[in-house]
Write a structure and sequence with these properties.
Elements lengths: L1 H27 L11 E5 L14 E10 L4 E5 L6 E5 L3 E3 L25
Antiparallel strand pairs: 1-2, 1-5, 2-3, 3-4
Length: about 120
């Protein structure tokens, strides 16, 4: 009977150690998001999972951050109708305004068809 109890304790201990390591691994990959008042953000629309569409964007907005509460909740304002609502900060991402793609002025060189000097 003591051997069974000892095996059970060992298995619980191994399980606890495994869960701690897994939690540390996943927590390393979490990206913390910080939002400021008057910042423009996009809101993740979870309703689109009901009616899936490949080409439809799942982000709506932009919205404006009004208040940032502790523990991740954010109050946002819809600039079109001034409606205010509170959402989880994990459903938001920053809105990149005036994002210009810089055109590359470099000329691409094709290495396969380049003239090879004759010897």
């Amino acid at each position: 009977m003591n051997e069974l109890d000892e095996l059970r304790r060992e298995s619980y201990e191994r399980s606890r150690i495994y869960k701690e390591r897994l939690k540390l691994f996943h927590d390393k990959n979490i990206v913390r998001k910080t939002f400021e008042p008057h910042q423009k953000v996009l809101l993740y629309s979870s309703r689109l999972h009901i009616f899936p569409s490949k080409l439809r964007s799942r982000w709506t907005g932009p919205f404006i951050v009004k208040v940032v509460y502790p523990y991740g909740s954010v109050e946002i304002v819809n600039p079109e109708n001034r409606k205010i609502f509170k959402v989880n900060g994990q459903r938001l991402k920053p809105f990149l305004e005036n994002f210009d793609r810089q055109e590359s002025s470099e000329e691409l060189v094709d290495l396969l068809y380049r003239d090879v000097p004759s010897t």
